[in-house]
Amino acid sequence: MNKILYFLILIISNNVFSQKNLFENLTIDKNTKIIGRYPQYDKTKTYEKYNFIIEDSLEISNFINSIKLGEEVPNSIEEPCFRIEIIKDNKEIGGWTVNPRAKSVMTHDGHTYKFDIKQITELNKQFPFEYYYEEIVFKSSQEYESYLTVEKNNPNFLFDYEPQFKYEGSFEIEFTKSDKFDSPKAISDFLYPLIDKIVDRNEYRVSYALNEKNKKNMNKSYTMTITGPKKIFEELKIKKFKKENWQSTVEDAWFFYKK
Hints:
About 25% of the residues lie in helices and about 30% in strands. By secondary structure, it is an alpha+beta fold. The strands form 3 sheets. A 7-stranded antiparallel beta sheet has the order 2-1-4-5-6-7-3. Strands 11-12-10-13 form a 4-stranded antiparallel beta sheet. A hairpin with a 4-residue loop joins strand 5 and strand 6 (about 105).
């Protein structure tokens, strides 16, 4: 996963914000927080001085009523940027990318507006905020859910970026070069109908990586990687070709805490 790209893309429900009011339809309760923070990938913490956290419902309401956007301007995202996020029930349900130098903000719908940076620069004095995050590796979604349940009892836990676990694992099959198997595409076209009998096409992928093994054997064979449910590894039968190197998927999650 490209973490930097992931955190710049604003994955937000269309029911949370409107274009001209950052938090128009937000329902505020005791589990609602507004956070302003430098992005965790910014190791120099460029805009740490702007960090803030608002947890009191009345103060959140005051913030919502005071924050304003200006006229629309051409899209832009600064590097580094600053983030304003809504946290509800330990989940990030919305966020904006603020460009402090350009004095603009990019919203969830891909539009950018002028933004008076003074609206947030003084919040750190009233609502100071420091945070840290931990990157934890999980072997299954069940393992992740168990860990998350425990962390939700930690009063300093804010939110997390969860692992996807789209695929259960992967394995390899080596095909000797021949007239029939003369390219990775030809092999993929051969494999698809066989695997489609086991699982749906959207549950797996077939790929060819120019790794060390394939570089070494590029004149005599192609080793294909099949990623998906273990059921494929268990049930796929191809005469003269051996399935090998099953590896369960391992993914990471990022957990954010206030100090």
